[in-house]
Amino acid sequence: MNVMRTARPAGMGETEWQARQDLAQCYRIFDLLGWTELIYNHITLRLPETGPGGEPRFLINPFGLHYSEVTASNLVCIDLQGNVVGQSDWPVNPAGFTVHAAIHAGIPQAHCVMHTHTTAGVAVACSQAGLSMDNFYSAQLHDKVACHDFEGITVHAEEGPRLLAAIGDRPAVILRNHGLLTWGADLPSAFALLWTLNRACEIQLAGANLGPCIPIPEEIRAKCTRDALQFDPRHGAGRNVFEAMGRLADRRDPSWRS
After folding, report:
1. Does the pTM of the predicted model rise above 0.70?
2. Topology of 14-252 in CATH?
3. Where are the domains of the chain?
4. What is the structure's pLDDT at 3?
5. pLDDT grade, residue 5 (50/70/90)?
6. Any residues with CB less than 8 A from the CB of 68 and at least 6 apart, and which?
7. Where does the sequence pass through the membrane (predicted)?
């Protein structure tokens, strides 16, 4: 991200500090968009540097803070089991990392996982019909959306294999009766996907009383997905829009940098 950065804490590597600032900024973007659920829900990011024993490490929001209070320094570093690594003044929500851990562990390219309970997202997740692929935004998600059946509050690790089987290689997930989730190789790609999925749900919810949608043929949906700029690496794969939203969040409150 092309922003001024505060000095990193003594003993912390530059790559971890950059990852912390990027993730903290992402939490502020979610707050700006209203994608918050009191102190609940999560965005997790795999750290580029592994722990002393070579084990992967992840960043997650402190349990008890609103997204508007998340900063680079108060993000919590955890291992794949959700145990806090190093020092933290805050705990971790046990329900928060169960689903994320399964995806991080089971999908090698899933370096970032995002989960929301937006009104539109939960409404579509609860719908027997599911996501309609017949609006401008859902048409850009051809063959990208998976669905996973609701099994209750996500605190049980044994759900992980069933979740992974439902996801396959699809990076956008509707957790039935629950909400939306996306994963990606980095924050911008996961964000672009989640924004598109949530926007598709918003349009579907807004038009729910207007009768059936005009169908979009599958070949047109496939073309829309190929042509979508926010997923195209030649156009930043979401990075440009992520940075633009980051600038908006920064002007609102730059304290995420600390």
Report:
1. yes
2. L-fuculose-1-phosphate Aldolase (3.40.225)
3. 14-252
4. 46
5. low
6. 28, 31, 36, 253
7. none
